């Protein structure tokens, strides 16, 4: 506790309060992205008045040590990261790409659960951030309560209890769907698979964001489809390039991630969404919306889906609980609109429906009220992890490194100095026990040679921090720094 001012030579109380906080920041007790105590709380702790603390915070804010966030409080500024630029994404013309060469650069799935690697590779949440105890209990309770239903076939459209909960939640997405409008799927992957089967045929071309999530490219490859990668940036697809592509090619479908895309973390404004829908309407092209990260803004309310603006039943909405509750439960959904009867047929043809117990477990979790509380914690954890990782990148990567600054989700996209080859860095980093996803995995044309994606799904620990320092050191060497 700070003693009140005793002599006229001592600095004023608010300055001493500010110095104390400054010391906590400089010594690393409070780190980039940390929320600092509220004015009231800090005042109480230090035995000083609220106006004194407010004066101290204002001073630290003007020194750029802390920053205020609307309705959220004060946070320690990520000072090094402030100087980072976002990836430049040099525009490239959209062109169709077959996916044969893509498969060759595919690395990653094998290291998904490898505990020996520092996990910047797969974009999965750390077990430590998932409500595993509660899921175990919920699953056991559901199985006990419904031993027959839980172990039967669950034919499409799938678990009624889950579709009811999805219907309720869809109000937050700006949609208000009926339970009957949902099809329960095995994650977003199966939702995208079914949607692609419904609107394309082998040989067709699908417009995707570039850089593109490699799972999507893999899926297109498996379905014998071609990709048309179109440049994207922090605001999503370059719409002029989309216009150009739909004029030059027969685009059978567009696949977009409007809310916190993977890997760029981009977010499409409402205006861009409307323009994209206009283009799709004009050329009569279905849109597959991948909304897997929609529940994961780092601040503020959950953003609406693109589907919420869809007046002509053009968007097939796909999502899941893989990034929020559990990737292994494989519970996702699809809202297919006019395609729903066909999608149900396809789903039943492939696997006679899905497993009932995981769907019932997620339904119960959503119903019993734990999900929103869990989400609040998870969003805060992803925000902090992203913030820390950006700050560390600013410290340990070579000059000229650019980094995305996503407002949601759990991945960062890095553009390294031109001379760095991310595949070579990858080999060395693997040998040093660090994983990440090299840029060419996100391009069927092998673009993004000097880029990489860092997953920030794990809480910040000395091991994570050291892993990033090791990676930064390797990149610095390759950059000749
Ligand atoms: C953009 C995107 N879509 C889909 C998936 C696959 O998700 P699911 O586990 O729901 O199948 C992922 C997983 O990383 C993803 O990042």
The unique ligands bound to this protein are: pyridoxal-5'-phosphate
Quickly count the helices.
15
Main sheet, how many strands, which sense, barrel? 8 strands, mixed
Strand content bin: 5-15%
Whole-number mean pLDDT: 92
Distance between the termini: 46 Å
Rg, Å, rounded: 24 Å
Helix/strand/pairing category:
alpha/beta
Classify the helix fraction into a percent range: 25-40%
Per the principal axes of the C-alpha atoms, what is the gross shape? globular
Question: Which ranges are low-confidence, i.e. pLDDT below 50, for 5 or more consecutive residues?
Answer: none
Trace the largest sheet across and list its strands. 5-12-11-10-9-6-7-8
Q: What's the total number of strands?
A: 17
Concise description?
This protein has 481 residues and is α/β, with parallel strands linked by helices. It has 15 helices and 17 strands.
Give the helices and strands, then pairings.
Layout: H1 13-26, H2 39-46, H3 50-62, E1 66-69, E2 73-76, H4 100-104, E3 118-120, H5 132-145, E4 153-154, H6 160-169, E5 182-185, H7 187-199, E6 205-210, H8 214-222, E7 226-233, E8 236-237, H9 239-248, E9 251-256, H10 270-283, E10 287-290, E11 315-320, E12 332-335, H11 340-351, E13 354-355, H12 356-367, H13 370-396, E14 402-403, E15 411-415, H14 422-431, E16 434-438, E17 451-455, H15 462-479
Parallel strand pairs: 3-16, 6-7, 6-9, 9-10, 10-11
Antiparallel strand pairs: 1-2, 4-13, 5-12, 7-8, 11-12, 14-15, 15-17, 16-17
Helix pairs in contact: 1-3, 2-3, 5-12, 6-12, 7-8, 7-11, 9-10, 13-15, 14-15
The structure holds pyridoxal-5'-phosphate (PLP).
């Amino acid at each position: 506790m700070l003693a009140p001012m005793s002599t006229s030579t001592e600095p004023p109380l608010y300055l001493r309060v500010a110095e104390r906080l400054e010391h906590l920041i400089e010594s690393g007790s409070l780190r980039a992205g940390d929320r600092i105590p509220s004015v009231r709380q800090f005042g109480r702790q230090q035995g000083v008045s609220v106006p004194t603390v407010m004066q101290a915070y204002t001073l630290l804010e003007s020194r750029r040590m802390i920053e205020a966030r609307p309705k959220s409080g004060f946070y320690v500024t990520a000072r090094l990261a402030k100087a980072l630029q976002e990836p430049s994404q040099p525009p490239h013309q959209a062109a169709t790409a077959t996916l044969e060469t893509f498969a060759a650069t595919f690395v990653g799935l094998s290291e998904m659960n490898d505990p020996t690697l520092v996990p910047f590779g797969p974009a999965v949440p750390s077990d430590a951030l998932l409500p595993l105890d509660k899921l175990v209990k919920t699953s056991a309770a559901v199985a006990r309560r419904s031993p027959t239903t839980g172990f039967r076939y669950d034919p499409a459209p799938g678990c009624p209890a889950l579709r009811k909960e999805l219907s309720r939640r869809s109000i937050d997405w700006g949609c208000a769907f009926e339970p009957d409008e949902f099809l329960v799927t095995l994650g977003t992957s199966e939702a995208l698979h079914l949607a692609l089967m419904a609107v394309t045929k082998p040989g067709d071309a699908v417009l995707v964001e570039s850089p593109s999530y490699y799972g999507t490219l893999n899926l297109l490859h498996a379905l014998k489809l071609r990709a048309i990668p179109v440049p994207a940036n922090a605001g999503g697809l370059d719409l002029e390039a989309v216009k150009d592509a739909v004029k030059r090619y027969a685009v059978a479908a567009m696949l977009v991630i409007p809310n916190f895309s993977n890997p760029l973390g981009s977010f499409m404004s409402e205006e861009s969404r409307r323009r994209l829908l206009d283009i799709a309407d004009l050329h009569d092209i279905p849109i597959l919306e991948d909304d897997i990260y929609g529940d994961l803004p780092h601040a503020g309310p959950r953003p609406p889906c693109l589907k919420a603006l869809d007046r002509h039943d053009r968007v097939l909405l796909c999502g899941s609980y893989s990034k929020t509750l559990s990737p292994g439960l494989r519970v996702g959904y699809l809202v297919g609109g006019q395609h729903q009867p066909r999608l149900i047929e396809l789903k039943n043809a492939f696997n006679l429906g899905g497993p009932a117990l995981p769907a019932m477990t997620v339904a119960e979790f959503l119903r019993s009220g734990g999900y929103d509380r869990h989400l609040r914690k998870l969003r805060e954890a992803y925000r902090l992890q992203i913030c820390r990782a950006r700050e560390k990148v600013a410290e340990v990567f070579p000059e000229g490194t650019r980094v995305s600054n996503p407002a949601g989700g759990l991945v960062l996209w890095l553009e390294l100095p031109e001379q760095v080859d991310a595949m070579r860095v990858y080999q060395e980093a693997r040998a040093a026990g660090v994983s990440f996803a090299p840029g060419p995995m996100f391009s069927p044309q092998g673009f993004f040679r000097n880029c990489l994606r860092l997953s920030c799904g794990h809480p910040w620990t000395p091991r994570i921090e050291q892993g990033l320092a090791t990676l930064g050191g390797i990149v610095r060497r390759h950059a000749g720094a």
